[in-house]
Amino acid sequence: MRLKDKTAIITGGGSGIGRETAIKFAREGAKVAVWDINLGEANKTVKEISELEGISKAYKVDVTNRLEIEEITNKVIKEFSKIDILVNNAGITADATLIKMKEEQWDRVIDINLKGVFNCGQIVSRYMVEQGNGVILNAASVVGIYGNFGQTNYAASKWGVIGMTKTWAKELGRKGIRVNAVAPGFILTQMTAKMPEKVLEMMKEKSVLKRLGTPEDIANAYLFLASNEASFITGTVLSVDGGVVI
Fold it and tell me: Catalytic site residues (predicted)?
């Protein structure tokens, strides 16, 4: 088991990539704190983990609310005694072209995708510094590297996450903390499943593997980066995109 005796926090763990990552981490021996703004969805993840005889607990957390993050982080410390891994997975989209994008669309995406990562990273890293080790994994995107039509806000947020990842790696490495990001390509989640079939086909065609990614593809990347197999990797952005940006 690659994460035996580790404790992991996964934001947005109630669905999609977050849920798959939580389950995979539990299979590999981690105790998992499942954070999600939707407690019902988080509890579904916990139920799946319990059926695998894993250890986990659901917490209702809004990543834009610093007081809530501090309170729940303290609860995780009390209940699990430590935090070894933080996966900043929570995120949203609110697409529109530059001309049509509303200010609230910009603010909401930046608040959750960028400031939310900052909030969780800053608060949880303080505990990791005290214990002298830890791993922080941030959800970036190929959109943050290359841009995408109709996603000014999303691209800006994910480019910002990449910048924070590299900065944190430099600042926290001397404290025994590794920081990396995963940049997914087009992944088949509840969000993308709602798209028209012709759009999904277009996304498949952009991949040299001619398929969409799965949440498990991304969870596998998180697992590798969280494990000791990646002990000499920090400050990197791992693209998991099926060759869509070659």
Answer: 154
Structure tokens belonging to residue 76? 């995780």
Strands 7-11 and 237-240: unpaired
Catalytic residue among 59, 127, 154, 222: 154
pLDDT tens per residue, range 135-144: 999 999 999 9
Binding residues: 89, 154-158, 187
Catalytic site includes residue 154? yes
The answer on pLDDT for 91 being more than 90 is yes
pLDDT-derived band at 156 (thresholds 50, 70, 90) equals: very high
Token pair listed for 56: 């986990």
Q: Is the confidence at residue 191, as pLDDT, over 70?
A: no
- What does 144-183 look like in DSSP terms, one character per residue? HHH--TTBHHHHHHHHHHHHHHHHHHHHHGGGTEEEEEEE
CATH-assigned architecture of domain 7-240: 3-Layer(aba) Sandwich (3.40)
Write out the binding residues for NADP(+): 89, 154-158, 187
Whole-structure pTM over 0.90, yes or no? yes
Contact predicate 3/227, CB 8 Å: yes
